[in-house]
Structures are given as structure tokens and as C-alpha cells.
Amino acid sequence: MIIVDGRLYQARADGKVSSPDPDNRTPFATVCRFHPGQSWTFNGSSNLEAMKKEIDEKASNQNVFCAIRVEGTFSYMKTHALQIQSKPYPPTAEVVKACVQREMKNVSGTIVGFRSPPYVRGIGDPGYHLHFLSDDKTQGGHILAFDMDRGHCAIDICSNFHMMLPEDGAALEDLDLSKDLVKEFHDALSDG
Asked: 103 near 78, Cβ under 8 Å?
């Protein structure tokens, strides 16, 4: 799920982007009304790690949520997307290893996402979680790596966290939520 300028997009496992049916459901989403407090243009080319470092310098308090938007031109963009899941749901490691990775070259688009604080581990994904959507809205997904030729970044420090759970709790009843699914996700990603 990628939301850019108030519009919802779905990056599918085949690498294509579509506008999903509004009745589709998602097990997890992090969203905000984006009101940037800081913005800047990157001086020269950058990559994912350099961008994170620059954001960390400008938003040094790691204990708050930081919403991120980067509009740029990328000589290289690598993304992946999860396959559709159904019951009985496979283990996290299997899901991540089945992700389809895509590489794009010379593409312009928008990065959106969050840097989440460490204390949300287990509720969310601490650290950076970023998605890409091409300007023509045909390609995108969860970002694994990129090389950016030029770009403009805006960030919004978010001071409000609201979590919604299923109303009657039945969807959570037979789940073992003591597992560290974030670690399983990242371990599987690094093995792949």
C-alpha cells in the first residue's frame, strides 16, 4: 500500500501498480496527514544509506515518528512486493523469501514512508520503512536499494500515535504474538 497525494496505490508482486478496490483490507498500515516541517535538496547523488544518514542528522530524535517524502530521479531503484497470502498463513520467512524483487533504471518518482522509533518493535517496524512510486504510477514497491541522481526531501515529525485493533479481538484470538516477526522479516530479507 502506497499513499501519495491522498491517493491509494497497490504495488503488486508482479511489480505493477494499480488502484485497489476501496473494500480491500490490509493487516497493517502506517499513515499520516503529511505537514513537512523541514525540506531540502540533496547535494549531488545519493543512495539509500546516505539518505537515511542525512535524515537522521536533520531529525536526530530517534524516539519520534518521522514521515518522509522524497521526489527524485533515480539511476537505479530496487523494490520488492509481498505475494497475496491466504489461510493457513505461511511463516514470515517464507513470505519474505517469496517476494518478487524488481530493478528499475533511470526512473523518476516519489519515495514515501516512515522512520519509526525503537519502542514500536512488535507493533510496527522500527527504523525506516519506505515505498517507491514511479511518476507514471506504473511501478513501485517496498524499497531495498537505490541510487538517486537528484532529489528533494521533506520530513514531518509526527507526535501522535494511534493504534486500532479488531473490534472484538476474534482476529487475534489464536495467534502467537510473542514471536519477533520484525526480526524474522529482516533475517529472511538478508538471507534472500
From this structure: yes
What is the C-alpha to C-alpha distance for residues 93 and 21, in angstroms, rounded to an integer?
Answer: 28
Please state whether 57 falls in left (phi above 0), alpha (psi between -120 and 50) or beta.
Answer: alpha
CB neighbourhood size of 192 (10 A): 13
Among 36, 28, 35, smallest CA distance to 58 is for: 36
Determine the topology of domain 36-120+136-160+177-192 in CATH.
Answer: 60s Ribosomal Protein L30; Chain: A; (3.30.1330)
Amino acid residing at 8: L
Domain residue extents for the chain: 36-120+136-160+177-192
Residue recorded with cell 541510487? 147
According to the model, what pLDDT value does residue 64 have?
94
What angle is formed at CA 111 by the lines to CA 59 and CA 186, rounded to 5 degrees? 80
| Separation in Å, CA 34 to CA 4, 14, 27 | 10, 29, 22
The closest alpha carbon to 117, from 79, 153, 161, belongs to 161
Predicted confidence (pLDDT) per residue in 51-104, tens digit: 999 999 999 999 999 999 999 999 999 999 888 777 887 877 787 777 888 999
Residue 114 grid cell:
516512515
Note if the pTM is more than 0.85: yes
Residue 146: strand pairing partners: 77
